[in-house]
Amino acid sequence: MKNLRRLGRVARFVVGLAMVVWTIYGVTTMLTHVVSGAERGLAAFLLIVGAVLWVPALILGFHLMGGGRFLKATRRPKQFCCLACNESMPALALFCPHCGSEAHRAPICRSCGAPRQVDHRFCRDCGASAV
Question: Which sequence ranges are marked TM in the entry (predicted)?
């Protein structure tokens, strides 16, 4: 199932990239015709009419390439659990809003990177020794 999701993400990225490349190619081709003077009137008309297709294709292409994922990441701040009371709290908080503790500023485990209590001898996530 995980490989199927990864394949879907790769396919969306490739389709989005193809749409962006197609859009840039079409715009540069039309601009080249407008500047060179070869069928200038027709090229200018197609450039204006083509913008109706190219702008949405460019926006959709960037969205398929992962633009929506970056927008979602900026909307909601990351949450983690307070080490003292196990309640959810914002990642950038200096103090826990539920118990007021600073326990979330505890040192991290060397083997897994999870925060650990200062007085614990072993990591509660991976069991590695804190010494």
Answer: 12-36, 42-66
User: In sequence order, what DSSP letters do the residues of 59-96 get, joined into one string?
Assistant: HHHHIIIIIHHHHHHHHS--EEE-TTT--EEETT-SS-
Shared-domain flag, residues 70 and 123: no
- Find out whether 32 and 77 touch, Cβ atoms under 8 Å: no
Q: What is the pTM of this model?
A: 0.43
In the predicted structure, residue 40 carries a pLDDT above the cut 70:
yes
Residues whose CB is less than 8 angstroms from the CB of residue 82 and which lie 6 or more positions away in sequence, other chains included: 88, 89, 96, 98, 99, 101, 103, 104
- Using DSSP, state whether 21 is helix, strand or coil: helix
Mark whether 99 and 67 lie in a shared domain: no
Domains in the chain, number: 2
Cα(128)–Cα(125) distance, rounded to whole angstroms?
8
